[in-house]
Amino acid sequence: MPLSAAEHCLNTCCTAVCRFVDPTNDVTGLSRYRKALTILFDPARSEVKLKQIRVSGPATVEADWTLGGVLKLPWQPRISTIDGHTVSDSTSIDLALEHVQ
């Protein structure tokens, strides 16, 4: 998948112990989540798009994004969009601890 604003946000905002939860995965760590995505999606025909990023509290940043693309299955189904939401709370650590879609 091409490097996007959403992925750049994840690269710079997530801890090594950030938990990623989606309809098919529940993994800890950005590298494991990336691997899970590349197992499911064809990187050449898939993308993540940042929809919005905002400061929602004195120590909290939230991002909304979409993920879509072609699954690595024999019939190559296209997933139009999966909405995601990332919360970064820097009250205890300067990086995101959980990412849920």
What report would you give on this structure?
The structure is a single chain. It is globular, with a radius of gyration of 14 Å. Helix content is 20%, strand content 56%. It has a 6-stranded mixed β-sheet with strand order 2-1-6-5-4-3, with helices on one face. The two termini are 18 Å apart. It has a single domain, classed as Roll (Nuclear Transport Factor 2, Chain: A), CATH 3.10.450. The protein is built from 2 helices and 6 strands, in the order H-E-E-H-E-E-E-E. The model has no long low-confidence stretch (mean pLDDT 77). By secondary structure, it is an alpha+beta fold.
| Rg (C-alpha, Å) | 14 Å
Give the termini separation: 18 Å
Largest sheet: 6 strands, mixed
Low-confidence stretches: none
Give the helix tally. Answer: 2
Q: Indicate the structural class.
A: alpha+beta
Shape: globular
Could you name the CATH class?
Alpha Beta
Q: What CATH architecture do you see?
A: Roll
Number of strands: 6
> How do the SSEs run, as a string of H and E?
HEEHEEEE
Helix content: 10-25%
User: How large is the share of residues in beta strands?
Assistant: over 45%
Number of domains: 1
Topology-level CATH name: Nuclear Transport Factor 2, Chain: A
Average of pLDDT: 77
Q: Strands of the biggest beta sheet: in what spatial order?
A: 2-1-6-5-4-3
Give structural attributes:
101 residues, alpha+beta, Nuclear Transport Factor 2, Chain: A, six-stranded mixed β-sheet, 56% strand
Layout of strands and helices, then pairs:
Elements: H1 5-13, E1 14-21, E2 26-28, H2 30-40, E3 41-57, E4 60-71, E5 78-89, E6 96-100
Parallel strand pairs: 1-6
Antiparallel strand pairs: 1-2, 3-4, 4-5, 5-6
